[in-house]
Amino acid sequence: MPQSKRLLSAGGGGRRNSGGGCRPPVVPLLFLCLLAPLLFFATRGSTRIPISSRTSGFLGRKTPDWKEQLIIKHLKPILTKEVVDLISASQREMGQWSLDYLRTHHISSSWQIDGAGIADVDNSTVTEVPQNASTVEKRNSAKSDDDTRLGPMGTKNKDSKDTLDGHEHVDSPAKIARRQMREKRREKRAIELLKQDDEALVRLENAAIERSKVVDSAILGKYSIWRRDSENENSDSTVRLMRDQIIMARIYTVLAKSKNRLDLYQELLTSIKESQRAVGEANTDADLHHSAPVKMKAMGQVLSRAREALYDCKAVIQRLRVMLQSADDQVRSLKKQSTFLSQLAAKTIPNGIHCLSMRLTIDYYLLPPEKRVFPRSENLESQNHYHYALFSDNVLAASVVVNSTIMNTKEPEKHVFHLVTDKLNFGAMNMWFLLNPPGNATIHVENVDDFKWLNSSYCPVLRQLESAAMKEYYFKADHPTTLSAGSSNLKYRNPKYLSMLNHLRFYLPEVYPKLDKILFLDDDIVVQKDLTALWSVDLKGNVNGAVETCGESFHRFDKYLNFSNPHLARNFDPNACGWAYGMNVFDLKEWKKKDITGIYHKWQNMNEDRVLWKLGTLPPGLLTFYKLTHPLDKSWHVLGLGYNPSIDPSDIHNAAVIHYNGNMKPWLELAMTKYRLYWTKYIKYDHPYINGCKLIE
C-alpha cells in the first residue's frame, strides 16, 4: 500500500542519515502495531475522523475527544499532504468516514464487507447476534439522514449542506455547474434516443405502407383477408368443423381396421358418407343441407367413442403426415394439369370464331372474281400514307385491330393496312373486310403461301421445321400421355411457333420492298389513340422503335437466352434491357443497309439444336436488333393484359396501344373479365355473321 511504502522509506531514510547501516525500521512498525487496534475500536464506536485539508492540520476542531487526539498525534507526522488532500476531498463529497457508514451505504458495488450484521468475531467461530429494535431504529434513522443529504444518481443534492470541522460547507459554484451540465447531457441524450425511436417507427410504418400497396386485392379474390366474412372468426364454422370431422374419421378408420375393430370401422365409414352427403359442395354454412347439424352431432358421438377406444398420439400424427403428403402430391398434379389445360386453351380457336371463318370462306368463294377486289389499291406503295403490317389467322382479332386504329385516327383515308394470313383463312379475311370496309382507309390481304421466295432454301426456320429432329421434338418425343405429363415444354410446342406468319416479321423489306417505314402490329392488341405521330419519331439511325420491358431484375436478355453458350457470352450483355413485339416502328431503309435479315439468318442457323434459346421470335429478335433498337415512351405500348391482373387502370387509360400478351386472350373464355371490355367494344355483336355463329359479348 502507498502509505506503508511511505512509512518504510521514511524510517529507513532516518537510519541512513544517522549512519546506522541496514537496520530494520523499528519505530514505524511499533507505531503501526499501536495504531491498528486504536483505529479499529475508534471506527467501531462510530467515531468520526475529521480530516482537515490544508495547513490548519488535524487540530481544527475545538473539542476533540481523547481518541481523536491520540490518532491525530500519531498520524500527522506519517501522512503526506497529498494523502490528506485526497481524503479531505472524498470527505467533502461523501461525508465523514466510519465503518458503519460504509456498511450501510455500500459506496462501491465492488466492495465486499465481511461480517455485516455480525456482532462478535472470534478466531474460531463467528456468532450472529440478532439486532434489537433500538439498533435497527438507529441505523434506519442514520440511513434516512444520509439519504436526504444525497441526491439522485448517488450525488449530493445541490441544496444540501455538510458539517465539516464544525462548519457548514456548501458546494462550490463550479461543482454545481458541472452537475447541471451532466444533467443537461443526460436529458439531451434521452431526447436523442427517443427521437431515434420515433424515426425508426416512422420508417417501419412507411415500409409497411409500401408493401401493402404491392398487394392487389384483385389477385387475392374471395380469399382476401379484407373481406367482410373474414372479420368474424366463427364465419362458416359449421362447414369447417364437418370437414375436420371427416378427416379425423378417416384416420380412425385406418386405426380401427388395423386393430380389428370392424364394428367401429363400419360405423365410421357410415358416418363419413352421411357427412359428405350433408356437406356436398358447400363452401358456406348457408349452403349446407338442413340435416347438417344432426349429422355433425352424430359424427361427434362416433368420434368420441373412437377416440376412447383407438386414440394413439403417435399413430394419429403418422396418419396426418401421410394425408398431408398425399394432399401435396394431388396439388402438384393439379397444377400440372392446370398448366396443360391453360396452354391447350390458349392455342385453340373457339367454336364461334371457327364458325365465322368457315361461313365467310364459303361466301367469299361464291363471289365472282370482279367483286373480290379492294378499292384504292394505288395507295399500297405510296410514301405519303401511313402503312401498317398485320399478320394473323384470326379474323375477329384482325377486325378489332383495324377498327380500333381507324376509329381513333384523325385522317383515316391516309392509312393503309397490309394483312397477311394463311391459305385456310385467306377467303374469310377477304370476305370480312369486303363486307365491312374500314371507312376510307385502304386495306390489302395476302396469302403467305403465295410468297414463293419464302422457301426452305432461303429461310432457316422452314428448313429446320422440315428436319427429322424438329419433327421428333414436336410430334413424337416426350409426347404427353396424361394431362400432367409434358406440361413444362408444352408452351414451346404451340402451333404459332411452327407458323411462318410468326416469323414473317423478319422479312418485311422482302414483303414490302417499296416502303421506307412501316408500323408492325400484333393481332392481340387494341389501339386507343392516334398513332400517326410514330412516323415522325427520330429513331437516330436505329432500325427498330419499341417500348422496353425490363425492370430491376426481369425481362432482360438473360431471361430469354442461354448465356452459358460462349457465342452469346462473348457478344451480348446478359443485363441488356429487353423490349416487346406487338407495336414496332421499323425503318426499312436502315434495315436494308444493316442487313437485318442476314443477321437473323446467322443466329437462327446457330440455334438449329435449340441451344441458344428454345423457340419463338422474341429471343432471335433481341439478338438481331441488339444495339439497333430505339426506346419509345412506355405510354405508347402497355403490355400484360393477357396475364397480369394488377395493371394500373390509369396506365391502360393513357396507353396508345394495349397488348393482351399471354394466354388469356380476349377472345377466349379464360380472358380476364375486367380487361375484356376494351376489346369487345370494337365488335358489332349484332352483325349477321357474328350473331349467326353465337358469338356473344
Q: Mind sketching the topology for me?
A:
Blueprint: H1 2-18, H2 26-44, H3 66-75, H4 81-94, H5 99-105, E1 120-121, E2 126-127, H6 133-149, E3 162-164, E4 167-169, H7 173-214, H8 217-220, H9 237-258, H10 262-279, H11 292-310, H12 313-346, H13 351-365, E5 386-391, H14 395-407, E6 415-421, H15 426-435, E7 442-447, H16 460-465, H17 468-476, H18 500-503, H19 508-511, E8 517-521, E9 525-527, E10 544-546, H20 557-560, H21 566-571, E11 583-587, H22 588-594, H23 596-606, H24 618-624, E12 629-631, E13 637-638, H25 649-654, E14 657-659, H26 673-680, H27 688-692
Parallel strand pairs: 5-6, 5-8, 6-7, 10-12, 13-14
Antiparallel strand pairs: 1-2, 3-4, 8-11, 9-14, 10-11
What does this structure look like?
- The protein is α/β, with parallel strands linked by helices and 697 residues long.
- Helix content is 48%, strand content 8%.
- It contains 27 helices and 14 strands.
- A 7-stranded mixed beta sheet has the order 7-6-5-8-11-10-12.
- Helix 2 (26-44) runs antiparallel to helix 3 (66-75), helix 9 runs antiparallel to helix 10 (262-279) and helix 13 crosses helix 15.
- The protein is extended.
- The chain starts with a helix and ends in a 5-residue tail after the last helix.
- One of its GO terms (biological process) is pectin biosynthetic process.
- Keywords: Cell wall biogenesis/degradation, Glycosyltransferase, Golgi apparatus, Transferase.
- Belongs to the glycosyltransferase 8 family.
